[in-house]
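User: I'm preparing a small set of examples for a lab meeting where we compare how different chains pack in three dimensions. I only have the primary sequence for this one, and I'd like the structure in token form so I can line it up with the others. Please keep the answer compact; I'll paste it straight into my notes.
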Amino acid sequence: MTHRLDGKVALVTGSGRGIGRSIALKFAAEGARVVVNDLDAGPANDVVAEIRAAGGQAVTCAGSVTAPDFAERFIGTAVNEYKGLDIVVNNAGYTWDNVIQKMTDEQWYAMIDCHLTAPFRILRAAYPAIRELSRTDQAAGRRVVRKVVNISSVAGLFGNAGQVNYSTAKAGILGMTQTLAKEWGRLNVTVNAVAYGFIRTRLTGNAAEGGTANIDGRDIKVGVNPELLAAMERGIPLGRGGTPDEAAGAVFLLCLPESDYVSGQTLMCSGGLTGI
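Assistant: Understood. Below is the structure token output for the 276-residue chain.
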């Protein structure tokens, strides 16, 4: 089997569960050394153990992406453990919904901090390492293309009722993507985004089951009303929600050498859904 990412060092936030886990496992299966992150060390360690059991290389960097010191620690883990930095995927996220008249400042800033400020800090922290690696490559006569993939949503492209906080943050990440594509092109870094539609994870399951997720000390209700869930899937041209592995495939496409001249773009991974 050809390992398309041999020798690459990949960092994936929110990769202890769901889509992030599938991205980390896909990268590792293709030969990348992966820095796995999750809010909790347990799920991250489980993914690292799974990768190592399959013969791959991975290390854990647990903690909230919104912590002020997280970005430097995350980038430092890659540089210290693997002496490189080739792929950054800003995947960590969740939703905390309400209509605007009922939405609190806490709900608003929680989404902005997680989906927009955290990626900003991570990429800012990554710049010195990427700049030095680029200079080393240039001095050695090598052309190495590095990759950033930011995760957005169809809600960031079209809006979604009850998600003014999430939709705004996911729209903002698209502006960040296009700006950094312009700033980092000279370093041979491509910066793209994947906008997901409805992907089946624990955060988008059946709300009738009463699930919650503890995020930064808050118990957030997760899931979608079952009637709304069925209606959403009927509106998808492919007739169903996507799987985490299918979601990971879209990110993988933007990390292959074949996408080395694709930058500043948003790839929709939505089963053909083009609006909400």
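A couple of notes for your slides: Strands lie at 9-12, 33-36, 57-60, 87-90, 146-153, 189-196, 212-215, 218-221, 266-269. The first strand starts at residue 9 and ends at 12.

User: Perfect, thanks.
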